[in-house]
Amino acid sequence: MNVPWALRVLLAIVTFTVPSKGTVEIENRIRLITPDDDMGGGRVEVYHNNQWGTICDENWSNEAAGVVCKELGYSGALFRTKKAYYGEGTNHTIHMTNVQCDGSERSILECKHNGWGVTGSCTHKDDAGVICLNEDTPDMKYLGCWIDNPGKRILTDFYSNRRVGINWQNLGETVLNCAKDAVTSGKDYNLFAVQFYGECFSQEGNPLYKKMMAAPHACVHGVGELSHNAVYGFAPYYNLGCWADKPRKQRTMTLLKNIRKKIDWFDMGKTVTACYSLAKDAGKKYFAVQFYGECWVSDDEKFREYGQATNCWKGVGAHWSNYVYKVRV
């Protein structure tokens, strides 16, 4: 089997991954300090000189957030967070400042920065974080920035206004609020848009958003400016992250089908989609990909029994780990 180089690197570090309650951690390297009620986001801390420390949010980007989330076994990042959104790491030093990643790095430690312990004017009020996933919303994909015509809207439903109390340092929060409002609206929304920094628009079914004119530079930090829509599409499933399984104990899910022979190593999303279709046809509530191409299913949340894991890759699980999803439609 011709396994990609990046995957061989992942297999080499599997034995060094350590999950624990409230923390997703790769031992002596990187960890995410997560609230107990939010297992998909948290404050980023890195290990250096025998101690854990935080990262200053100076130039902290979604590219950097993506590197962190993928390194910790998530399929990717939703948004970066700034200004100690997940609390201040006051018991630790600030290890890294002005971190700059292009998104291709395998670890946040490969990204450029000002030097270990060089903090400048940063304080723990500037601690950086990430949102890797949100269990309350379906998996989301950014579909671009588009010019709206208020007199002839493509997305006609102005279903929520989130402009009051905008967190301007963390506009990803506004996007997630629009997403949650779309999910709880009771409407058949498969995509939504954020306009004018906090106005939420959509239309039931599968609206032809591409009839709008593209404006790739008119959306900032994930939201649209005046008369511009930052559009997001919903997947037919929720992203629940990477969870440990134990072969010599009771398995947390049931094997539905082995689809390893059909793996496209350059597009693991095809494997996730195939497993979703199998789970949906079988009437199952949850599905997971383990060992890169085994489709496992369940109707309960027993998959959480052994805690979170970090040895997942591009939305699928590796050895004895399940990357879990919940069927939406």
UniProtKB/TrEMBL annotation:
Signal peptide: 1-22
Pfam families: SRCR (PF00530)
Gene3D superfamilies, sorted: SRCR-like domain
A single GO cellular-component term on record: membrane
Disulfide bonds: 101-111
Residues covered by the SRCR domain: 30-133
PANTHER family (alphabetical): DELETED IN MALIGNANT BRAIN TUMORS 1 PROTEIN-RELATED, SRCR DOMAIN-CONTAINING PROTEIN
The protein, known as: Lysyl oxidase-like 4
Gene: LOXL4_3
